[in-house]
Amino acid sequence: MQTKWKTSRLGDVAEYINGRAFKPEDWKEEGLPIIRIQNLNDLGAPFNYFDDEVDKKYLIDNGDLLVSWSASLDAYIWSRGPAILNQHIFKVHEKTDIIDRHFLYYILKFVMDDIKDKVHGATMKHITKGQFEDVKIPLPPILEQRRIVNILNEQIATIEKAQAAAEEQMEAASCLLDAYLEFYFNPDNNGEVWPIRKFGEITSERLIGLVRSSKEQSIFGQYRYLKMNNITTRGSLQLDSIVAVDATEQEYKKYQLTKGDFLFNTRNSFELVGKTAVFNLDEDGWVYNNNIMRVRFHEKICSDFINWMFLSKGIKKQIDAFKSNTTSVCAIYDRQLVNLDIRCPPINIQKKIVAEINEKAKVVERLNIEMIKLHNELNSLPHRLIHQAFSGKI
């Protein structure tokens, strides 16, 4: 902050009006949307509505400055039309003779780290109105405020364009592997005519895993215990959060995982059931959960080939038709799985396709990592710019 700038308090430059306290029974299907914290942090979050009279101090419209002060601490300029403000969010009325609204918005972004340091309570981020209003802020002359706002607006608009481009590239990287899979596994695209066999015909064994309650799981068990959350939606294993269980010698022999085992998630949410992976570790001491089916194939079938095939649209469409819901849990049963139509080229062709897809998947993964890194760097730029502005560096 430049030394010539004055210092003031948040409470001296604006009035902060807390939103209305709504009860769940107040929510309606139509009316004005109620702005809750999730609606500020997630543009896709659904609104609740209110269709009765409300004090005008709770009414919000485009351009209003809002501050969330419980659970999530941040400042926002509202741009989604007429709405009603929920509790735990301040509507800000700035004193226009001493502070510009957009300058105050950026100031709030700048001091948010200091505000968070004043937060008390381990489970819920929360600040009292008194603590909030007592936060010190730099206060340059109004013309200097507007100069800073213009510079920040221009630079952040440029960053937002770059962010949008990076997000498009991330989406393109994600779609690239899907395009490769379509090329290899859609007969209309690759022109290859492969014999079709039922899934049950190409398997030599299908076995649901070992039942162990959460109380029987720890980090100290005899055997590592693979669970459905360890199978990703992209056909791989994620082994950062592995638990262990005890098992008898007979149980271990029955449920042991060996290299090349194909794993199918039989029970999960509707979106996640049917995830697959191949166990490709050269190590003993692994068993698997009862929400997973271990599949072993006849020698003329490559498990990695089947795993890639299960990520293709054709197989996904068949699996979606098999899904059976019971409340929040969705299941796919063995009697359904055995009837999947599987296109089976000769084993040498399977291995050739696996090698080609693996290489393409590595390229896609490297591209995705680069895009995520760029996206994260871009996301940090507005914060850094704002800090530069209030350190007198722009």
UniProtKB/TrEMBL annotation:
<keyword id="KW-0680">Restriction system</keyword>
<dbReference type="InterPro" id="IPR044946">
    <property type="entry name" value="Restrct_endonuc_typeI_TRD_sf"/>
</dbReference>
<comment type="similarity">
    <text>Belongs to the type-I restriction system S methylase family.</text>
</comment>
<dbReference type="InterPro" id="IPR051212">
    <property type="entry name" value="Type-I_RE_S_subunit"/>
</dbReference>
<comment type="subunit">
    <text>The methyltransferase is composed of M and S polypeptides.</text>
</comment>
<feature type="domain" description="Type I restriction modification DNA specificity">
    <location>
        <begin position="221"/>
        <end position="355"/>
    </location>
</feature>
<dbReference type="GO" id="GO:0003677">
    <property type="term" value="F:DNA binding"/>
</dbReference>
<protein>
    <recommendedName>
        <fullName>Type I restriction modification DNA specificity domain-containing protein</fullName>
    </recommendedName>
</protein>
<feature type="domain" description="Type I restriction modification DNA specificity">
    <location>
        <begin position="4"/>
        <end position="162"/>
    </location>
</feature>
<dbReference type="GO" id="GO:0009307">
    <property type="term" value="P:DNA restriction-modification system"/>
</dbReference>
<dbReference type="Pfam" id="PF01420">
    <property type="entry name" value="Methylase_S"/>
</dbReference>
<dbReference type="InterPro" id="IPR000055">
    <property type="entry name" value="Restrct_endonuc_typeI_TRD"/>
</dbReference>
<keyword id="KW-0238">DNA-binding</keyword>
